[in-house]
DNA (cytosine-5-)-methyltransferase (Oceaniradius stylonematis), 388 residues
Amino acid sequence: MESAELFAGCGGLALGMSQAGFKHRHMAEFDRDAVATVLHNKANGVEHVHAWPMNLQDVREIDWSAFGALDAVSGGPPCQPFGIGGKKLGQADGRDMWPEAIRAVREAQPRSFLFENVRNISGPRFRLYLDWILAHLERPSIQRKANETHDEHRERLLASRAKPEYRVVWQLVNAADFGAPQIRHRVLIFGIRADMGVDPQPMIPSHSRDKLLWDQYVTGEYWARHGLKVRAEPQLRQDQTRVAALRREAQDPKGLPWVTVRDALADLGDPNGVGNHVFQPGAKVYPGHTGSPLDLPAKALKAGDHGVPGGENMMVRDDGSVRYFTTREAARLVGLPDDYEFPRSWTESMRQLGNAVPAQLGAAAGRWLSGMINKQRPGTLDSNRKAA
């Protein structure tokens, strides 16, 4: 299956899509440092990455109609216009690239697409804009007119009698529910071209907090696996309540447990100064920023506009002390292999990792998308697909 990746960053989503069986025919990223990271690993022959056609490129300059047949277009438009930590200007922010994502779909007419963004885009402040995105992705050929507001265009799209060109579904997901050792809430938008006769469905989680709590505090299997003394009760009050309920129910939850920080880093050892596994001084706790406990998935890594946020990208060790995640540890939390190197500074590397989609979530979403593509109803006309 052939795909194109917009806003590729340091490669988290792209790697997940590659692991799911997609072959990237084009990858575009505007940030020089992120492109340098990918090209460094491409030159080193990292699996999947060695074949990536990565380009330092502004997506606004791409003619997507020149790509011929594509099975998928994927990417994460910059989230800064919608994130809780920024100015929250949304579509008024010059960094908003959702119109470019929609243009890519309009021009390339892929069989499917997958886009992701921050949870906040589905909140009250931006929900009408998300509704515009969804309506426009359903009918990308009905373009916004000059001087037409997004609200006016949304209403025109929703009132249109033209057949939808894509069938679209969106959902709010937690990356930890799909095997990432990081609690990262994202909005995913799936689309399948209407002529394929397939209705896209939301993803079904494969991992759960309940299963982790069961393994930790009902059977104790988690502690035995790590060679640790069994801990009788979780620290968080809501988890204590849930564990009590699980014990009453006495039924092993289905699926896999959340992957914890301890799970992800178990064989890595303390920072040794080799490669990207270098100790970074200065970690400290302050109100609202207390680091990530070892026995849960990590809190979402933060990129930071002016350096690494002081209390976000750090672990809480067994003795209660804290330290920053090394670049290697953060890369593991994002699902990048140990031979995937970051040649820039720790601050720049953490910025890239804080912006990255966890590869575990990308792989799960890519496999889900692939499964929907392969459900194309026999006999349906692939009329819009262009000759390769």
About this structure: The chain has two domains: 2-206+357-373, 207-355.
